[in-house]
Amino acid sequence: MQWLSLCFLSLLLFLIYPLKTVAQESNNEPMNGFSYQVRQPENQINKNVGYYDLLMKKGQKQKVELILYNAKKKAIDVSIKLSSAKTNANGVVEYAPNALKEDDSLKYKFTDIVKTTDRVTVPAESDKTVILEITMPEDSIEGLIAGGIQLQLIEEEKNTEKEIIQNKFAYLIGFLLSESDTKDIKPRLKFNETYSKVSNGQHTLFLNYSNTSPIFVENMDVVVKVSKHNSNKDLFELKKSGLRMAPNSMIDFPISLEDKKLAKGKYKLQADIRLSTGENWKWEQNFTVTQDDLSSLDVQKKELGEDNTISLYTLLLGITSVVILVLVMVVFLIKRIKK
Predict the structure, then answer these.
(1) In angstroms, rounded to a whole number, what is the distance separating the alpha carbons of residues 73 and 195?
(2) 36, 154, 253, 281: which could join 77 in a potential S-S bond, CB 3.0 to 4.6 Å?
(3) SS3 of 21, please?
(4) In whole angstroms, what is the distance from residue 116 CA to residue 98 CA?
(5) What is the spatial distance between Cα 268 and Cα 233, in angstroms, rounded to a whole number?
(6) pLDDT for the residue 339
(7) Alpha carbons 299 and 294: distance in angstroms, whole number
(8) Are residues 62 and 71 in contact, defined by beta-carbon separation less than 8 angstroms?
(9) What confidence tier does 338 reach under pLDDT thresholds 50, 70, 90?
(10) Any transmembrane segments, and where (predicted)?
(11) Closest residue by Cα to residue 177 from 149, 141, 150
(12) In 10 A of CB 69, how many CB atoms?
């Protein structure tokens, strides 16, 4: 009787308070018994941060250490991946490996400068030192070479011989290399192109531009206006603020046209980008919405709608099953109480 009551209460709470999990990993909160420590060398510029920020010389070779800790009672395997810093469509700097394109202005890739092993085993209740080898270019560099280190646990999948990255949680550690003070280097933004295509089932306009300077761009405000190509009357306006860009990176800034109901024809895009430091860039570009764009959009919308219908059916079926189970248990409990 007590067991049935507990089951009923658990199911009721599940219906009222859906389960949510949030992963917030940090160096002070070990991920399933796994943590790390950045061992800062003497040439660390900012000693109050948890990432590498090193002052180097041209042609310099150096080895730095990263300590991995394992609090578990069994050994763990850790995947180590390096990546150049890039900028995603949301104006966020990406330090993890990704499929984002590199900008043409990127002369020295982080992954060509820094090397390490791609996998390491950390013994039970012990630690392991990972060596990161740095080889600076023979020519002097201006500004920053920026990248990141991704650490992920690897575990064998139960009942199979396959290996999986556990929960896809990861530690990301920034890595900056410079040869001189970068404070006087100014951002340089360059317009590349405007193009329209179907993305994730939505008709989307993209503003592609680059930060060709070897420093981070901070606090970037973007205003985009779209009008008919021969008109000064705005059809719509999009504003975003607080965006960032990695050194020598590009951004594909998306403007959804899904609810704008643009017919095929010629249009004009005006972009205004401002920084909190006062710099300002303005670009104007014509673009065309074709019948092929609209037809492709209709096809993808239909496919997306079918996928959503299947997902909704599965969700409703699951909810209905749980509700029926709860009702059966309620009826059973009432009958037991009456007896």
Answers:
(1) 54
(2) 154
(3) coil
(4) 18
(5) 10
(6) 60
(7) 9
(8) no
(9) low
(10) 310-334
(11) 141
(12) 18
The residue ranking higher by pLDDT, 262 or 271, is 271
β partners of residue 53? 176
CA atoms lying within 13 Å on the CB side of residue 116: 25
CA distance 123 to 115: 23
Cβ–Cβ < 8 Å for 293, 203:
yes
Specify the amino acid at residue 338: K
CA distances from 308 to 301, 313, 315 (A): 10, 8, 10
DSSP single-letter state for residue 214: S
Q: Identify which of 220, 229, 226 has the alpha carbon closest to the alpha carbon of residue 204.
A: 226
Closest CA to 175 of 129, 133, 120: 133
DSSP structure string for 138-199: SS---SEEEEEEEEEEEEEPTTSS-EEEGGG--EEEEEEEESS--TTPPP-EEEEEEEEEEE
Question: Quick one: tokens of 117?
Answer: 């092993």
Alpha helices, H only, 69-154:
110-113
**What is the tens place of the pLDDT at every residue in 263-301?**
888 999 999 999 999 999 999 999 888 888 777 776 766
Decide if 247 contacts 210 (C-beta within 8 A): no
- Which whole-number Å values give the CA distances from 244 to 69, 154, 228, in the listed order? 32, 32, 30
User: Distance between CA 335 and CA 191 in Å, rounded?
Assistant: 73
3-class DSSP assignment, residue 6: helix
Handedness of CA 213, 216, 221, 225 (dihedral sign): positive
Go through the domains of the chain in sequence order and give each one's CATH number.
26-178 (2.60.40.10), 189-292 (2.60.40.10)
Question: What residue has token string 């993808």?
Answer: 300
How far apart (Å, rounded) are the C-alpha atoms in residues 90 and 137?
32
pTM for the whole thing?
0.77
